[in-house]
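Supplementary notes for students who missed Thursday's class. We covered one full example, reproduced here. Read the sequence, then the structure, then the short commentary at the end.
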Amino acid sequence: MQSFISFFAIPSYQLGFASLFYIFVLYLALRTFFNRFSAANKVFLPFLLTCLFLSLYVFFLYPHLSVSIMISRFYFGVGLFVFAFSNFKINTVYFIRSLYLFSFVEYFHTKLLGFHPFYIINHFNLANLSAFSRAEFVSGSFRLYGPALNSSISASLIAVLLLLIIRKSIFSQSNPVLNHLHLFDYLALLFVFLLSGSTVGFFVLGIGILFYLSKILLLCFKSFAISKGFIYTLVASAFVFVLFLLSDFGFQLFSTKLSPGYIYYVLEDKLNSISFDNIIDFLFGSSQNLIVSKTSIGGDFVLLNMISICGLVPSSIFFIAFFRLSKVLNLQLSFLVLLISTIHYGSIFNFVGQVFIAILYSTTYEELSSS
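Structure (token representation):
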């Protein structure tokens, strides 16, 4: 049962059956709460209660039941996922392999037949050519949508795994989610990550690598009177310099999606999107900021969408509770990567992202509690 659930969580989303998986998660959460309460639940319960409290706030703010449920499921559903999986032993190998196996299906189907698999066409409700154009990277090539059916989210989730692999390789600090994986699994994840061609994915991976590089330099210069701030500034400056250098040399990936000009364009576009009528709406949200439509939840600036719908204060409460849980599990860097990637498309709020987080966090706790 666990292996089946682990492997078919992703195709349930891709094939449009995610609602059935949500019902299963709700069943697990209720069973855990009433029948199988344990030490693990006490760790995850504060985060769940925070998400439930914020969901009640949303119900108070938006009287339409269907809209309130959509908002709560999207923005705060991860709390339910994490709590439900705390007493459900997931086969992490099956889940991680499903991340790249279904990406391989997408890649070879598109490469050999010239159009995307049917589930991608159906998801975007577009003609074959239009769906291919959405994924076009540079002339003659394309990028993968990946398991989350969104290049940025898929790449960001895999970036979390790649950073855990780097931590294991350099600092010998393994995470149980990597147990029983082999070199082929690592290379397959890297292959899918590269084919995503995601600016956000490369950016968050770069942030994580900078963090590890800074730790290495701090260890090397431990006996010298060099401040952490200087090391972090030096590493960040070197990262920006290399980015500009690669862009100037015309590498396809860096001269398009990762070029300084493109990054500036994205930042300017996001900043220009920030607009609120008054301070109260900004702090606590307003039903006036939401058209009663599924398409008005999410978008390509999800963090701003969350603040405009729920308010800055409730949004901050959610992320503080999430960070506190991450700190308990020593997953602060994973939290940072997920947070940064959520600014754009919402890695934390996507269905695959919620399943991914639930598996990562519950599996990590299981290892910590047994050690």
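Commentary. The mean pLDDT is 81. The two ends are 26 Å apart (CA to CA). If anything here is unclear, bring it to office hours.
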